[in-house]
């Protein structure tokens, strides 16, 4: 499945109703640190298919979702479990730190 593009139309199903943890990445194509995070998140998605979902929210294309979660800096990572935000991090972090957000 790899990464899933999240929009306001599929947010409920893909994130809030997901039966596995979701790491939601708020990003933009012009954001340097977002570009640095992309391969890390892709690797996590590929290595943990079926047990962790990586969702990608382009803040330029989805202003509603960005404002709903108060996104002012990117990349912003939000961890959802059972439809609730359980952790978050703003900025670039290494793979091990991303995975630690799930604990």
Question: Overview of this structure, please?
Answer:
With 103 residues, the chain is of the alpha/beta class. It is 33% helix and 27% strand. The chain has helices at 11-16, 32-47, 63-68, 95-100; strands at 3-5, 22-27, 53-58, 76-81, 84-90. It has a five-stranded mixed β-sheet. The radius of gyration is 12 Å and the shape is globular.
Primary descriptors:
103 residues; alpha/beta; Glutaredoxin; five-stranded mixed sheet; globular
Give a summary of the structure in a few sentences.
This protein is of the alpha/beta class and 103 residues long. Helix content is 33%, strand content 27%.
Give the CATH architecture. Answer: 3-Layer(aba) Sandwich
Weakly predicted, low-confidence segments:
none
What's the rounded overall pLDDT mean? Answer: 96
Q: The CATH topology is what?
A: Glutaredoxin
Distance between the termini: 23 Å
**Regarding CATH, which class?**
Alpha Beta
Q: Largest sheet at a glance?
A: 5 strands, mixed
CATH superfamily: Glutaredoxin
Shape: globular
Percentage of helical residues?
A: 25-40%
Element-level helix/strand string: EHEHEHEEH
Spatial arrangement of strands, main beta sheet: 1-3-2-4-5
Number of beta strands: 5
Approximate strand percentage? 25-35%
Structural class, from helix and strand content?
Answer: alpha/beta
Number of individual domains? 1
């Amino acid at each position: 499945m790899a990464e899933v593009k999240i929009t306001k139309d599929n947010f409920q199903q893909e994130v809030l109703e997901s039966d596995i943890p979701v790491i939601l990445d708020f990003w933009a194509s012009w954001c340097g640190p977002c570009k640095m995070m992309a391969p890390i998140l892709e690797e996590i998605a590929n290595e943990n298919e079926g047990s962790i979902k990586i969702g990608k929210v382009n803040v330029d294309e989805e202003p509603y979702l960005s404002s709903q979660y108060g996104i002012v800096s990117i990349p912003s990572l939000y961890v959802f479990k059972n439809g609730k935000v359980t952790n978050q991090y703003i900025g670039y972090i290494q793979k091990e730190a991303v995975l630690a957000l799930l604990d």
